[in-house]
Amino acid sequence: MTNKTDYTALVDLNLPSGANIPASDHRATMHTETDSIGEVVFGAGVTDKDTDENYTTSNANFNYTIFFRKVGSQVTLTGRFQSEADLSNSSFEIFEVTDSNLLQESSVTAFCNAIKPNNSDTLPVYFLGSKLLTSSSILDGESYRFTITYNTAD
User: Fold this and answer.
1) Which stretches of the chain score pLDDT less than 70?
2) Residues sharing a CB contact under 8 Å with residue 90, sequence separation 6 or more, in sequence order
3) What Rg value do the Cα atoms of the chain yield, rounded?
4) Is 42 left (phi over 0), alpha (psi -120 to 50) or beta?
5) How many structural domains does the chain have?
6) Residue of 13, 17, 43, 143 with fewest CB within 10 Å of its CB?
7) Quick one: how far is CA 30 from the chain centroid?
8) What is the per-residue burial (b if ≥16 Cβ within 10 Å, else e) of 20-37?
9) pLDDT at residue 20, as a whole number
10) Are residues 124 and 52 in the same domain?
11) Cα(61)–Cα(87) distance, rounded to whole angstroms?
């Protein structure tokens, strides 16, 4: 995953002012390089799990599988989580995002209602800074699915 800063650096490197620029440098800037505009807009999303922790750090009370899809500075985070313990009456961290390209812009909170599969029960969850949290009670073994959209800092 890339960001605006990385793309700007690629443009400055490959497309300097007043130069005879080869077509290959134009192509690299537009779609070949990992920091190209094509990757910024159309890049593939990434998946993570509590057992992998490539983009996140897990909490021992939850297992999860999630998918990040970033377009520009907007991220759609979709996934499922399951409680591994009875948790009640407090704020619980489900996982923390560790990849700087996926961190939420500061001082903004994104909310959604996670839905229990095959049921109409919901659980409020929110993404604050780098953490997906819930402030509601959850029983051991309960599983929920969610989709939440937020903007990154870059």
Assistant:
1) 1-4, 7, 18-19, 23, 26-43
2) 135
3) 19
4) alpha
5) 2
6) 17
7) 24
8) eeeeebeebbeeebebbb
9) 75
10) yes
11) 8
